[in-house]
User: Which sequence fits this backbone?
């Protein structure tokens, strides 16, 4: 663990990204404390500029506080990003592990399915899924997971292919372990590092997809999110630029920070790959 | 076997491989249609305001909706293969006609975007790799990192704020000034002016992607043995870069341009709805609001097929660009 941190902190921008993410997490965790009221409620004079009428970042056309929306939106973005990624990684591991471990016909079938899902234009597919299931947290998570698992499946399959003939796996066979246990307890832990790296980058993508869906009006109507704020503010662009601007900055900073952390994790977990760029 | 016959065989095999994927997408489409609440008859009845259960049953029989699912699937497959993508009750038009009408606008936007993104991406990546670890490299890398993390719709809105509302240089939305009745070159100019903001917005993300890839690809090629040979031969660095390294470094970028077409279509939904660009993306956005599922599914299917076709074309171009590729 300490050597991991030693390697991680050599990448300065990754440390910066981690600091930013921690701030965003603290913001999300204390949202109910910082702004205890419903972010959808009318909080004061509509269309106040930043710093006016007690609004740090201004208010929108219905008098909602933009800053409150951003703080509560952080919860939504992080939560959806994280859960959707976990679901996608789970699906990807199941597909990749079985395909790589058993090979042959099963591999063919599973990889064909993966290929189909990789070909389908992902954002339109996500729109379609959410539209059909009706917008809610659950449907958004499902849609994001369904469009993002193929990358994980391919990665895990590659790792399983490389590891399944290693000596330690053969030793497990000789000991009479069953396949499932070998896959879960022996091979999987050995390919965790690339999974963690790809997972961290997927959280960033998931947040971008979520904000895009919410912007198009496919967010959960009861939950504040950054994309929703921007979508609601776009008609007021001429008179109130701040309604769209600040939530967008929040998305940009969060996604950027997650990407930096992902690169840092890559450097720290896969030292062999570092020389590549 | 000569190379050209090999290529023909390769292409026909690739075409054949695309068939099951398209079939699978049609089947997914069919199940999504069935997953949705209510069917076409419910929509029709809703539009009409009132309908008796007997009349609705009669309509279902007429559309074949009372048949078992496998039969319906076969009918659906047959219809799609005949390019019949169903009927949009909102627009009172067949879906395929609607899509065909809007195709030109999206095609124009996407072509310009790809040209801009690949062109500038290659240029910036080349520059960054040639000036490795200088301030130019750092600026380009940071730029790529930031654009990679920016949501497209937000960039679009900010562009509108700056270039349309504050500076007043460019129009905020639409594809042309319909009220002006321009003709000939005036009309082309008008469309070009409207095209600038959507194209720049949509290309930013891909620009970042291609820049990063081009830089990495150049650096990888610089490490190859043939570069050492070229240096030993006494070639100038300039010649090594432009004649030898650049050509090889371009190959992965070309592949990526094909792979990214699917993402580009998704991006165009967002950009078109920000700029009210009257293409397929805007149509998808409108159909979302109108709950016009047939139309949305049609657009989805067409874009999936487009991705397959573009990837095939890229693969073929690749064979010609790189004679080392084994086509058998």
Assistant:
């Amino acid at each position: 663990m300490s050597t991991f941190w030693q390697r991680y902190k050599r990448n300065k921008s990754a440390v910066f990204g981690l600091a930013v993410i921690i701030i965003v997490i603290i913001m999300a965790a204390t949202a109910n404390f910082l702004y205890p009221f419903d972010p959808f409620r009318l909080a004061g004079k509509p269309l106040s500029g930043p710093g006016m009428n007690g609004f740090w970042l201004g208010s929108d056309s219905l008098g909602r506080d933009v800053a409150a929306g951003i703080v509560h939106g952080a919860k939504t973005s992080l939560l959806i990003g994280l859960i959707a990624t976990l679901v996608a990684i789970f699906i990807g591991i199941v597909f990749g592990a079985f395909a790589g471990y058993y090979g042959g016909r099963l591999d063919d079938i599973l990889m064909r399915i993966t290929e189909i899902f990789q070909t389908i234009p992902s954002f339109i597919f996500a729109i379609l899924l959410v539209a059909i299931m009706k917008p809610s947290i659950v449907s958004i998570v499902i849609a994001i997971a369904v469009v993002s698992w193929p990358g994980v499946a391919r990665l895990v399959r590659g790792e399983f292919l490389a590891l399944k003939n290693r000596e330690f796996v053969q030793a497990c066979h000789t000991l009479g372990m069953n396949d499932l246990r070998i896959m879960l307890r022996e091979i999987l832990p050995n390919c965790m590092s690339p999974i963690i790296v790809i997972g961290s980058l997927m959280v960033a993508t998931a947040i971008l997809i979520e904000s895009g869906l919410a912007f198009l009006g496919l967010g959960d109507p009861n939950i504040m999110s950054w994309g929703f704020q921007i979508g609601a503010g776009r008609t007021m662009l001429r008179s109130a630029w701040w309604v769209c601007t600040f939530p967008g900055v929040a998305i940009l900073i969060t996604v950027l920070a997650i990407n930096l952390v992902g690169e840092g994790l890559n450097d720290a977990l896969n030292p062999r790959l570092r020389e590549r760029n | 076997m000569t190379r050209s016959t090999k290529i023909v065989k390769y292409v026909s095999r690739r075409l054949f491989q695309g068939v099951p994927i398209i079939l699978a997408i049609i089947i997914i489409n069919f199940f999504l249609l069935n997953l949705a609440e209510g069917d076409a008859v419910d929509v029709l009845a809703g539009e009409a305001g009132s309908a008796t259960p007997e009349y609705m049953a009669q309509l279902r029989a007429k559309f074949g909706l009372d048949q078992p699912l496998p039969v319906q699937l076969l009918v659906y497959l047959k219809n799609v293969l005949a390019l019949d993508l169903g009927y949009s009750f909102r627009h009172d038009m067949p879906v395929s006609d609607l899509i065909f009408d809007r195709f030109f606008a999206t095609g124009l936007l996407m072509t310009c975007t790809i040209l801009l993104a690949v062109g500038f991406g290659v240029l910036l990546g080349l520059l960054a790799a040639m000036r490795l670890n200088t301030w130019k490299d750092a600026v380009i890398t940071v730029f790529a990192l930031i654009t990679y993390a920016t949501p497209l719709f937000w960039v679009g809105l900010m562009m509108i704020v700056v270039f349309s509302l504050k500076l007043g240089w460019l129009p905020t939305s639409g594809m042309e000034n319909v009220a002006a009745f321009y003709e000939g070159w005036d009309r082309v100019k008008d469309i070009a002016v409207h095209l600038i903001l959507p194209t720049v917005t949509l290309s930013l993300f891909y620009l970042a992607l291609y820049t990063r890839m081009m830089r990495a690809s150049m650096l990888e090629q610089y490490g190859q043995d043939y570069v050492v040979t070229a240096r030993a031969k006494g070639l100038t660095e300039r010649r090594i870069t432009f004649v030898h390294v650049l050509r090889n470094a371009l190959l992965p970028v070309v592949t990526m341009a094909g792979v990214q077409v699917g993402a580009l279509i998704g991006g165009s939904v967002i950009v078109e709805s920000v700029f009210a660009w009257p293409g397929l993306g805007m149509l998808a956005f409108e159909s979302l609001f109108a709950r016009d599922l047939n139309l949305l599914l049609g657009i989805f299917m067409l874009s999936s097929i487009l991705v397959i076709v573009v990837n095939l074309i890229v693969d073929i171009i690749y064979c010609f660009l790189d004679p080392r590729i084994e086509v058998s």
Notes: Chain A has a mean pLDDT of 85. The domain at 2-276 of chain A is CATH 1.10.3720.10 (MetI-like fold). Chain A touches chain B through 43 residues (CB under 8 Å).
